[in-house]
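Re: beginner question about structure tokens

> Can someone show what the tokenized structure looks like for a real chain? I only ever see the sequence side.

Sure, here's an example I had lying around. Input first:
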Amino acid sequence: MKRSLPLNAVRVFELAAQHRSFTKAGEELSLTAAAVSAQVKSLEAYLGTPLFVRSNNRLSLTAAGENYFPRIRDAFRALQQATDQVMGQRDASLRVSVPPTFGTKWLVPRLFRFFARHPSIAVEVVTDGNDDAGWDLSIDDRVVEGVEQSILAISGYSPVCAPALSGQLHGPSDLAAQMLLHERPGRRAAAAVSWDQWFERAGVEPGAVSREMGFGDGTMMLQAAIEGQGVALAQDLLVAYDLAAGRLVEPFSLPTSLQHTYYLAISRDAADRDETSIFRDWLMSELAAPK
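And the corresponding structure tokens:
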């Protein structure tokens, strides 16, 4: 007869795989790294296969570990949710993965309205973009292979700057004398529009551009613009709150065909849950609201 599953060892493995570190897992569990290692070895013996590759003080998952980790992670999350409901805690929870700038500039400023309507639904927002982190809903500007996605929103692009700088900008031809801020494509950005693309689509000959500054993070780019350090080429969707608050202004309006697309994906485990539908519908209503 097969021995019972060693749940303690499974939990230890789950944390070690999440952190890719026996030391960090031990800190969370109040165990030594050696004790964590021993628990993992006992689980590997039970399963009959190694779960980690240990080399040069680095820890990585084997193919078996990569396959096992997301399944036991989701099982522990489901167990926690069921326990919370029985104990009368929050009825439901959602883990929402977003690109960092979208989370900071669009989602988080609006979440208070969701909580006001649905106080019993907990929302955890993650921006690490790591598939191992697990999510119930994912908002991304990448087309992800093997994930069923639908278009959530499409944003245009506009030059924006601090109010104090706007007096120097009477039209697109004045941009060449300014520090032009732009975002570079990175781990959580499928692509980033360049100023050259914007000038071309706008039908503008800027002449020789004096200075440009690229950022690997859109939030930093927008903060630089707020601080008056230059003119940012920004997604309209992400600067609505800063424009409304007067932190940024659009010095002139010149629409172009440049667009940035965001996609929504829902995990199979979350697809049939009421809280998922509630959050998705709220997202759609916020995106449809007047800017």
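Each token stands for a local structural state, so reading them left to right follows the chain. The chain has three domains: 7-68, 90-153+261-288, 157-258.
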